[in-house]
Amino acid sequence: MFDTHFHIIDFRFPIQENQGFMPPSFPVDAYQERTRGLGIGGGCVVSGSFQGFDTAFMLDALQKFGPTFVGVIQIPATASDEEIRRLDAAGVRGVRFNLVRGGSASIDDLDRLARRVFDVAGWHAELYADARDLEPIYATLAALPAVSIAHLGLSQAGFPTLLKLAARGMKVKATGFGRVVDIDVPSALRDLARTNPECLMFGTDLPSQRARRPFLPSDIDLIRESLDESLWSKVFSENALAFYRPRSVKREA
Fold it and tell me: Cβ neighbours of residue 173 under 8 Å, at least 6 residues apart?
């Protein structure tokens, strides 16, 4: 499996309080211990609001994880092409826009920065947003070359917009089931898979900071029970591998 969404929180690198919240320590070895036995062979480290524009923690984490892991980073709109290429060589594959917690480039920079990182390095734009807030920028998002959204778009109120964007190619992370509001997760997974079988991507959301409940291994079972078996390989690995382009892929023995 490829885990498309988790955070590494290493206090050897800059961590800042966000909205009165200071995250727990969750370094690489803690993630590896927490996911032992789940069958995860690669994944994506995602910058958190509390890490701002720091990239040192990401470079360290990706070096420790190895080439089957990639990253999604927060960078300012003023980041140079050379910096983007440097991060790409280390395994970074996307830029994050955190519309819920901040710490990232702003929504005003979305179209320009998303297109620039795609042109420079083939990166996608990742949104942490409530999908109900995306309707005003639907046309912008639908026209972007590559974009994803975390946690099923967070709310049932935003689900119609999410489905429209999924139909236009947006990737949707099957993550954060302890964060969503009023979403019936099994029904949402089935609706998204019917709309676009290539859109869904599994992730743990570890360490699930600020979520009402953390990721549980039973969330993997919930996905399997909700979807036809013919879709499992897409949701748990194939869609993500095509999207994130890790430097290598772990092969089964």
Answer: 4, 5, 148, 149, 150, 151, 152, 200, 201, 202, 203
